[in-house]
Amino acid sequence: MLYKLLIVDDEKIIRQSIESKVRRLQHPLAAILHAENGLEAKNIVQETAPDIIITDVCMPKMDGIELIQELVQVGSNSKIIVLSAFDDYAFVRKAFKYGVLDYLIKPINTGELHQQLTRIYKDLHTKEGENLETERHSPNSIINIVKDYVRKHYDRNITLSEAANLVNMNYSYFSKLFSEEANVSFSQYVMQVRMEKAKELLTDPINRINEISERVGYSNIYHFSRAFKNYAGCSPTDFRKTGVR
């Protein structure tokens, strides 16, 4: 199977450099497309549906984060890697919230590029082989696939769109199916997994609460504490003091 790659960067020399490196790596690509900003990239995605997108974050007209938001809203299945300078990590953290797989630091290391593309190819191949015809799976097995994925990746913001893409299902239909089969909404299930893991971590006094917050996917300790209290009925500190289970 040959895949389509879209490279998005406002600097032509960077786009050409990435293409040159990809071609030397001899990955199975049918086409390598270019866009100089998010707006142009959005149009290309609508027309050609690339399998993989490598995008810069800082661009004119539409930046990388805005592009990713647009793609999430339309339910794009493209696998996304973000390009980042060392001082762009705040943008990268935001990108991860929308299901971005990873990021590459400029100037791009060929070995890291190879590793990330290889991982994506394996994922694409697996999805083609195992989940392409979702109707062959029972609803229960579909939900179990997603639950297992959440239990492995609860430390980052897993979007409903990302989960639906995992099992090749329509965003709205998947949301309805998950709620019916799991008896909770997808977002509630993610929260349950995070909070139960937080409880487990709180039993060990060596784990600081701010570290636990990060480990279960909350960059803001206030948001974590509020979510934990809503879930457990007490603050993380009180939970640790009283040993409530």
TrEMBL record:
<feature type="domain" description="HTH araC/xylS-type">
    <location>
        <begin position="144"/>
        <end position="242"/>
    </location>
</feature>
<dbReference type="InterPro" id="IPR009057">
    <property type="entry name" value="Homeodomain-like_sf"/>
</dbReference>
<dbReference type="InterPro" id="IPR020449">
    <property type="entry name" value="Tscrpt_reg_AraC-type_HTH"/>
</dbReference>
<dbReference type="InterPro" id="IPR011006">
    <property type="entry name" value="CheY-like_superfamily"/>
</dbReference>
<keyword id="KW-0804">Transcription</keyword>
<dbReference type="Pfam" id="PF00072">
    <property type="entry name" value="Response_reg"/>
</dbReference>
<dbReference type="InterPro" id="IPR018060">
    <property type="entry name" value="HTH_AraC"/>
</dbReference>
<dbReference type="InterPro" id="IPR001789">
    <property type="entry name" value="Sig_transdc_resp-reg_receiver"/>
</dbReference>
<keyword id="KW-0238">DNA-binding</keyword>
<dbReference type="InterPro" id="IPR018062">
    <property type="entry name" value="HTH_AraC-typ_CS"/>
</dbReference>
<feature type="domain" description="Response regulatory">
    <location>
        <begin position="4"/>
        <end position="121"/>
    </location>
</feature>
<dbReference type="Pfam" id="PF12833">
    <property type="entry name" value="HTH_18"/>
</dbReference>
<feature type="modified residue" description="4-aspartylphosphate">
    <location>
        <position position="56"/>
    </location>
</feature>
<keyword id="KW-0597">Phosphoprotein</keyword>
<protein>
    <submittedName>
        <fullName>Response regulator</fullName>
    </submittedName>
</protein>
<keyword id="KW-0805">Transcription regulation</keyword>
